[in-house]
Design brief:
Blueprint (H helix, E strand, L loop, with lengths): L3 H24 L7 H21 L2 H24 L1
Helix pairs in contact: 1-3, 2-3
Length: 82
């Protein structure tokens, strides 16, 4: 059985969860997501990306890399738009 399929499905579900929030934040004049959440999520995802890179785990590298970029974009919006 190909276990990567579970990982790819997980990536898809997390992206489906994050994308509407990110689009809403890009359209809004103010980001309502808590700063603490965005900071912890962004840096936690970054550390997990590094961990996945070291382990050569492609599924988690892609997942956490995308999570870092998306949450980081929300964090930048939070600091630039308030």
């Amino acid at each position: 059985m190909n276990y990567d399929l579970y990982g790819l499905l997980g990536i898809a579900l997390i992206l489906i969860a994050w994308l509407p929030e990110t689009v809403k934040n890009f359209k809004a004049t103010q980001v309502k997501t808590r700063t603490e959440f965005l900071l912890l999520y962004t840096f936690g995802s970054l550390l997990l990306t590094i961990h996945a890179f070291i382990l050569n785990d492609l599924v988690f590298l892609v997942l956490n890399g995308l999570a870092t970029v998306i949450s980081g974009a929300n964090l930048v919006l939070k600091f630039t738009r308030g």
